Recover the amino acids of this structure.
């Protein structure tokens, strides 16, 4: 039944691959149906409902500790020490919640409501033992917490208010603000923007949070999503890599997916300063219509959701297809 919603014969092999019931996952399939194929709402909602009971969503929820946490910690697993392993582990509570949100795990499900309640009671940030849903001090972590908390029905208004008060003079945010940083970073800014957008989608936002969101957007747009304002050179070559899962890392496809979401929510047309990043993503498409996973952050995970670097990625392909569809439908430059 799912395969009946493919949009055209020329693209059908790509959507067949994305929707493959034997190798794909409900968390990808429902988003393909909604965002790429414009399937009827009942079709993608039915597929999304499966995330709770099967596939990666159910599998990740099964790793939850009895006290509601994952791996015994808020942002890091219990007992983690830097230098003991390659990279940063991605198995703790904050990263599990981010993946469940990306999967589209139903916030109103019994399992999600139970997790939210237990996290509120038992989970504390490593920074200074702050209760999880009250946030900590780093804007990148707090932006992510706002996105996750709001998605799962928690009132994150106090953390949003803190983030609004931490906008730097150049328009964005930096996790080193507590250490005196006065220059924004791409990585921190995208995490905060995603949190503010989720908050605005759920509550309408406040005048102040909307203004802060627009300020952060302008920070990225002035830099065409990846260039230094001072020299015009790429701020970091990795910003041009197509990666997944992103965790706290910035890259242009993540930013474009954010701007797509913001445009749909606010009704604003795509900004022409996105064109260079759009054409970079378009240029990376393979002859078979898919996109490769260039890189994924090193570190411990519960399980992989891609086939590995330099292999076609369903997640990257899904995001690229819906971003290009949005851009082209709005009449952006090609």
């Amino acid at each position: 039944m799912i395969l009946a919603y493919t949009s055209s014969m020329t693209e059908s092999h790509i959507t067949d691959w994305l929707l493959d019931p034997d190798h794909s996952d409900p968390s990808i399939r429902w988003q393909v149906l909604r965002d790429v194929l414009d399937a009827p709402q009942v079709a993608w909602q039915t597929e999304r409902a499966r995330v709770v009971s099967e596939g990666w969503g159910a599998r990740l929820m099964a790793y939850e500790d009895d006290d509601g946490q994952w791996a015994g910690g808020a942002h890091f697993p219990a007992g983690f020490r830097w230098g003991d392993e390659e990279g940063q582990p991605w198995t703790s509570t904050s990263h599990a919640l981010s993946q469940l949100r990306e999967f589209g795990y139903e916030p109103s499900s019994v399992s999600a409501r139970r997790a939210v309640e237990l996290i509120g009671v038992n989970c504390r940030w490593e920074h200074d033992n702050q209760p999880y849903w009250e946030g900590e001090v780093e804007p990148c972590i707090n932006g992510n917490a706002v996105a996750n908390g709001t998605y799962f029905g928690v009132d994150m208004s106090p953390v949003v208010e803190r983030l609004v008060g931490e906008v730097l003079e150049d328009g964005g945010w930096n996790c080193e603000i507590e250490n005196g940083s006065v220059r924004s970073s791409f990585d921190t800014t995208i995490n905060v923007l995603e949190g503010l957008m989720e908050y605005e989608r759920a509550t309408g936002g406040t005048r102040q949070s909307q203004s802060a969101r627009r300020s952060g957007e302008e920070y990225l747009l002035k830099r065409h999503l990846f260039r230094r304002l001072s020299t015009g050179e790429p701020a970091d070559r990795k910003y041009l890599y197509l990666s997944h899962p992103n965790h706290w890392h910035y890259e242009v496809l993540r930013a474009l997916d954010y701007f797509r979401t913001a445009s749909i929510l606010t009704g604003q047309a795509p900004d022409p300063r996105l064109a260079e990043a759009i054409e970079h993503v378009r240029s990376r498409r393979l002859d078979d219509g898919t996109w490769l996973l260039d890189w994924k952050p090193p570190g411990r995970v519960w399980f992989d959701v891609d086939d590995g670097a330099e292999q076609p990625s369903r997640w990257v392909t899904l995001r690229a297809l819906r971003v290009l569809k949005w851009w082209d439908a709005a009449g952006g430059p090609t």
